[in-house]
Amino acid sequence: MTIDVGTLLADRYRLEAQIGSGGMSTVYRAFDTVLERTVAIKRMHREIAEHSEQLERFRREARAVAQLNHPHIVQVIDAGEHDDTPFIVFEHVRGETLKERIQRAGRLPVTEAVAYAIEIARALGAAHDRGIVHRDVKPQNVLINEEGLAKVTDFGIARTLEEHGLTADGRVLGTTDYVSPEQAMGHEVTGQSDVYSLGIVLFEMLIGDVPFHGENQVAVAMKHVREELPDVQALRPSVGAALAAVVDRATAKDLEVRYPDTADLIADLEDVLTIEASRRGEATGEATAVLRSLPPQKRRRANLRLRRRGLLLGAVLLVVAALVFAAVQLLPDATTRGTDQRPSTPPVSGERTISLSQNAAHDYDPLGDKSEHPEDTAKVLDGDRSTAWTTEQYRGGVFPSPKTGVGIYLDVGTSTVAATRLSIATSTPGWQATILASAGGEAPPSTVPDPGWVEVGSVAQATARTNVALRTNGRRYRYYLVWITQLPPGAERVSIEALSLLRRG
């Protein structure tokens, strides 16, 4: 039941227009006659207010969100009752919902989508720190103000982590287009559920549509439980591998694989924003503001990348024709190298890329000076084929005694995985390597050979794109090492542009 525009609530708030309505409440634009400002008022439907459980949920929303004071959360100003029906007063955000923005734009610029994901994640992190899970993260509940800032609203089905009994076991809450698998199954809902929903929102911002459709909400919810998300890079090839990996990890159905909290997600999204901005040479929309908000070290890295890209652009345009010609002459697959930001070899049916953080790659030089260009290892995971990790230069193309090799390894984390393939992109084909794996502990084995290392594959002669089948036999490992044993003929170093691990399921 709605009430007439012009009604004065609590002798203070004059309703001006209805601006939204949901299953529990109607939202109005109103004027605060005391402070003389525009506000938004959410008033519970009278028939809903008659149910004590729903009334408690509504009041709980007001109490929960009133505890939160964050630039990316719509602020609660006041609460009260009118004709025995409760209402909540919020700050009024002029602009549009993120859903409306997506519907209008089709899909967002990549850097803008990442920027909004960062802002939403920051808001959810603030709520999680107070023990509050949103439980209904979707673009309809994100407002974009006139300055382009994202603000999360509608904690209407939020519940503090300490409360129990106010939501019946097995009851699915939330919009099924974005619902986490555990929420769809009626299992315990935590901050990781919000992370999953945000991953779906990020997917929609990048693609312009939700990943799953069905005949009804139950059918869609079951797809979140049973089906893998469509490959975001197949649907939008300009999305870098690093960003695709973030989407994969945020939406992982296995809670051990999914980001454990928003802090880890934010850290990776911030890294991705600097990568994507540098790839494009610019940042659009809200991405510019978010870049300025990054920690100093990341901000300096982003500025340096953008500055370098600007200085080099003119020179690149002058020589690009010559480079393309040379690439075509030298490499059979040169027409795709440099623009393909997906894993070196796309996953086969039943396989998916293992999500890795930007700091998962490490140099390995146990028989030398213990350092093999560690400052460049992240480049094999940044999705940019113009950057690379290289070995040191070895005169005559031979490792000096007693060194028998050098390498780079990937740390998948304490959850460990049974990888089935390793995909390698290199611009220095012809080298040889052994692929070693270790369940390890806090660090991999300190030398090669070592009983802690298990040989799971080999590279007889690396090509521009090398696909190595790994013999893990279902055993889970934490560390996967590319142990380079022979340099390319006539060359004095090895360059690796990208590494990707894949697994079944």
TrEMBL record:
<keyword id="KW-0472">Membrane</keyword>
<dbReference type="InterPro" id="IPR000719">
    <property type="entry name" value="Prot_kinase_dom"/>
</dbReference>
<feature type="compositionally biased region" description="Basic and acidic residues">
    <location>
        <begin position="362"/>
        <end position="379"/>
    </location>
</feature>
<protein>
    <submittedName>
        <fullName>Protein kinase</fullName>
    </submittedName>
</protein>
<feature type="region of interest" description="Disordered">
    <location>
        <begin position="335"/>
        <end position="379"/>
    </location>
</feature>
<feature type="coiled-coil region">
    <location>
        <begin position="41"/>
        <end position="68"/>
    </location>
</feature>
<dbReference type="InterPro" id="IPR011009">
    <property type="entry name" value="Kinase-like_dom_sf"/>
</dbReference>
<dbReference type="GO" id="GO:0016301">
    <property type="term" value="F:kinase activity"/>
</dbReference>
<dbReference type="Pfam" id="PF00069">
    <property type="entry name" value="Pkinase"/>
</dbReference>
<keyword id="KW-0808">Transferase</keyword>
<feature type="transmembrane region" description="Helical">
    <location>
        <begin position="310"/>
        <end position="331"/>
    </location>
</feature>
<dbReference type="InterPro" id="IPR008271">
    <property type="entry name" value="Ser/Thr_kinase_AS"/>
</dbReference>
<keyword id="KW-0418">Kinase</keyword>
<keyword id="KW-0067">ATP-binding</keyword>
<feature type="domain" description="Protein kinase">
    <location>
        <begin position="13"/>
        <end position="273"/>
    </location>
</feature>
<dbReference type="InterPro" id="IPR017441">
    <property type="entry name" value="Protein_kinase_ATP_BS"/>
</dbReference>
<keyword id="KW-1133">Transmembrane helix</keyword>
<keyword id="KW-0175">Coiled coil</keyword>
<keyword id="KW-0547">Nucleotide-binding</keyword>
<feature type="binding site">
    <location>
        <position position="42"/>
    </location>
    <ligand>
        <name>ATP</name>
    </ligand>
</feature>
<keyword id="KW-0812">Transmembrane</keyword>
